[in-house]
């Protein structure tokens, strides 16, 4: 992963020491100025990524990442994806983006060079069709007040409702294979709470029941 960061940075324009400090801070701590304006997710231009359609399917043991920002993939996010891909070469790694991305971007090209990784575009107005959230995203432009919850929190549960599999936040670094685990699992954030940054809903009865409850 450190090699990945080094390679990408070598292709950037020279920056000052101050800019380097800011870049390092953003990579390590995820500092950003994300807006709650969701209009970028409805843009159809300037994106040549393959698109998720009603006919798209994924292997049942896929690992999903979701980028619901308007700023695209960062090095920090890419490290999370790469770690999952290298630790689980037998699984399909799927990165879903809600906003336009250029596959010629250096970060995306590096991820696509991994044999088991794909980066795809989802369109909000269609993504929830034939699910309990059908129609939720049809209003344009969507706002935080419309959802009353962060967009990423909706999409992570919606994605596993649609396809089953494992969801990972882009803050997670994977150090070993996902093997020897139950069909459905979550992780503890504290003794009293569970985390939604990392969980698995399978296609079996219990997994479907958990996915239904999560969307309510």
From TrEMBL:
Gene Ontology MF terms: hexosyltransferase activity
Name of one Pfam family that matches: Gly_transf_sug
GO annotation terms (biological process): glycosphingolipid biosynthetic process
Domain of life: Eukaryota
A cellular component annotation (GO) from this entry: membrane
Protein name as it appears in the record: Alpha-1,4-N-acetylglucosaminyltransferase
Lineage: Eukaryota, Metazoa, Ecdysozoa, Arthropoda, Hexapoda
């Amino acid at each position: 992963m450190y090699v990945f960061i080094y390679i990408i940075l070598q292709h950037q324009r020279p920056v000052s020491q101050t800019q380097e400090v800011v870049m390092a801070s953003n990579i390590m701590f995820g500092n950003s100025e994300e807006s709650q304006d969701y209009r970028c997710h409805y843009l159809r231009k300037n994106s040549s990524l393959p698109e998720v359609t009603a006919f798209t399917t994924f292997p049942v043991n896929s690992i999903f990442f979701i980028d619901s920002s308007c700023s695209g993939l960062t090095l920090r996010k890419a490290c999370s994806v790469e770690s999952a891909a290298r630790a689980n070469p037998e699984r399909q790694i799927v990165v879903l983006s809600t906003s336009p991305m250029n596959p010629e971007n250096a970060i995306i090209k590096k991820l696509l060079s991994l044999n088991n990784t794909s980066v795809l575009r989802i369109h909000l107005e269609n993504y929830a069709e034939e699910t309990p959230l059908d129609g939720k995203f049809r209003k344009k432009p969507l706002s935080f007040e419309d959802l009353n919850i962060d967009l990423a929190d909706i999409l992570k549960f919606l994605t596993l409702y649609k396809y089953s599999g494992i969801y990972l936040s882009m803050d997670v670094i994977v150090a070993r294979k996902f093997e020897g685990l139950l069909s459905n699992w979550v992780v503890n954030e504290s003794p009293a709470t569970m985390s939604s940054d990392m969980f698995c809903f399978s296609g079996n009865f219990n997994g479907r029941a958990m996915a239904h409850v999560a969307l309510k």
